[in-house]
Amino acid sequence: MFGEPKTEKSSTKKSLEPNSIPGSYEHYIQLFHEHLKRIKIDAPQFSSFIDQYLNDQQVTDLSIIAAEKMKLTLNDGEQHSFTVGNPPVCFWIWTLPVPLNQSKNWIISKYGSYSKWIERSLNSPLSEMHGCTVFCHIVSGGTQNGIWFHIAIWRLNASAPIDKFIIPVEFLTDEERQVLKI
Q1: Is the peptide bond before 88 cis (omega within 30 degrees of 0)?
Q2: FRET partner for 133 with CA separation of 20 to 30 A, picked from 18, 49, 163, 181?
Q3: For each of the chain's 182 residues, which pLDDT tens digit applies?
Q4: pTM of this structure
């Protein structure tokens, strides 16, 4: 139901061959930082959360894991996933075998909709792992021609250090956008 979730401490590092994936792992790190900058501009209420829980080292570690999983995705055309518990945040990394403009349809075909996947995730054991109160869904996708990053962030309970959420609109159906007033 959720791909192949695994748990690993965020300090564990993976080694990558710099040219083994589209671009290098440095390219993944750059894409991740660029995406976080856009979030800080478009949703400044997340700036302190990003500064505290998605610092340079965390972005590097998560980018390397995403790059490793994307390498698998590009080789086998399948989704891969990985979880990292770093309380109070649970990071769930997905890699999708499609360009961004096809991600919504891919998610619908696998899960019914992104909001249905979120609902199932919130009711899964992963939502309570390691005492996490915030769920950060890092999604990378693409083909040999290029990759993309997106992030969703939502709280799991009232003690979370955030009180808002971010969901990539590209993943949402028209009905989901109407319900969320996006």
Answers
A1: yes
A2: 181
A3: 223 333 333 332 333 333 444 557 888 999 999 999 999 999 999 999 999 999 999 999 999 999 999 999 999 999 999 988 888 998 999 999 999 999 999 999 999 999 998 888 777 666 666 688 898 999 999 988 888 989 999 888 888 888 888 999 999 999 999 998 88
A4: 0.82
Q: How far apart are CA 64 and CA 163, in angstroms?
A: 29
| Calpha distance 182→44 (Å, rounded) | 17
Return the number of other C-beta atoms located less than 10 Å from residue 125's C-beta: 7
| Strand, coil or helix: 114 | helix
Got the DSSP string for 16-57?
A: --TTSSSS-HHHHHHHHHHHHHHHHHH-GGGHHHHHHHS-HH
Amino acid at 60: T
